[in-house]
Amino acid sequence: MAGQEVQPELFDQGTQPRQPQPIEKKEIPGLWCIKNYITTEKHDKLLAHVDEQPWLDDIKRRVQHYGFKYDYRARKVNYDMHIGELPGWLEELSKELYWEKYMPEVADQVIINEYLPGQGISAHIDCEPCFKDTIVSLSLGSNCVMNFTNKLDKARRIPIWLEPRSLIVMEGEARYKWLHSIPARVSDEWGGERYDRQRRVSLTFRKVIIGDSSMNNGPTRLRVTMPGGEVIECRIAADTVEAVIFKLGPKLVSSVDRENMLISRSQLSGSGRKYRKRGEWYISRDFQNEHKKELLERIAERLGISTMKVEIIPK
Ligand SMILES: O=C(O)CCC(=O)C(=O)O
After folding, report:
1. DSSP count for the chain of H helices, then E strands
2. Per-residue pLDDT averaged across 47-59, rounded?
3. Which of 12, 208, 237, 245 reaches 20 to 30 Å from 261, CA-CA?
């Protein structure tokens, strides 16, 4: 297996300016690792923030999606999957990554992965039509090995040692020509030592590609004209759904939501289903705006409100 010797040169030892250093080794051009990117204090604060947020458990490991929901099965992101701006604590990090030149643009999509000992991520290249070139991942909690496997020559596998508080930047060849994976195991061997895995949490920052063919519909929003003539039209369609439900009366709405497309906060815990937090209500993150429109129309029909008008309009 090639490349065990690559590691030390990949890391910034803390004496260099905070810019990605070009890699001396030719094996993975476009890959940078930055050790001690954040302080221990910031690390702990970030982990606490992450743990205050709801997790999704629709895949093998728990995840959180911000900015845009990513559809793992269809490998796509589209406008309807915009689930809001990044929360302040992630926006701040995204801006820092940009100011410090680790990313050429401010990230607008973040996925947080949780890996318990024994969990990993299979070899993949991040969706090419969905995300721009530079992908950055920040490690919290535990060391682990990440393997890079050459797309055209699978025998070329280069293990990289990821430490908590370190950053990994993938662009160019590292992004498009190498698959990355984390083996699902409880310990890793590195430098002749065996390390037990602890819980690891990673924050992966990406910039979504807007306006290419993967985004076949332009961005849309929902406009709802209420029976009294009031128009509700929020920038994010899910917010419009929430505002309409609030106006109609959440209890009344839940009594006619026979498909369980909405779920109240108290019902969420342990449900194991994919919901997005929307204030007092959760709405499935996977719903397209057409589905949100149908949901509101069905609810209006069941409540006997014939004068509520729901439209999908361009943003
Ligand atoms: O855990 C990591 O550092 C990488 C995560 C990753 O590859 C992904 O979310 O696609």
Report:
1. 8, 19
2. 91
3. 208
Which whole number is the average pLDDT over 240-252? 83
137 lines ligand 1 (CB under 6 A): yes
Q: Which residues of 224-257 are buried (b: 16+ CB within 10 A; e: fewer)?
A: bebeeeeebebebbbbbbbbbbebbebeebbeeb
Give residue 309's pLDDT: 93
Contact status, residue 148 vs residue 180, Cβ threshold 8 Å: yes
**Average confidence score pLDDT of the chain:** 81
Handedness of CA 129, 135, 140, 141 (dihedral sign): positive
pLDDT at 212: 41
Q: Ligand 1 centroid to 213 CA: how many Å?
A: 25
Best of 113, 142, 175, 197 for a ligand 1 pocket test (most atoms within 8 Å of beta carbon): 113
Testing ligand 1's pocket by substitution, the residue of 56, 180, 188 carrying the most ligand atoms inside 8 A of its CB is 180
Virtual torsion, Cα 303, 305, 306, 311, nearest 10 deg: -90
How is residue 123 written in tokens?
């070899």
| Residue of 182, 176, 206, 209 lying closest to 76 (CA atoms) | 209
Q: Retrieve residue 27's tokens.
A: 């094996």
Residue with tokens 């698959």: 179
Residue 16 has pLDDT above 70, yes or no: no
Please report how many Cα atoms fall inside a 13 Å half-sphere around the Cα of residue 245, on the Cβ side: 28
Residue type, 174: A
**How much is the pTM?**
0.67
Rounded-to-integer distance, Cα 28 and Cα 198, Å:
27
Task: Go through the domains of the chain in sequence order and give each one's CATH number.
Answer: 4-206 (2.60.120.1520), 220-314 (no CATH)
Angstrom distance (rounded) from CA 216 to CA 112 = 27
Total residue length of the chain: 315
The rounded distance, in Å, linking the Cα atoms of 31 and 11 is: 10
202 pocket-lining for ligand 1 (C-beta < 6 Å): yes
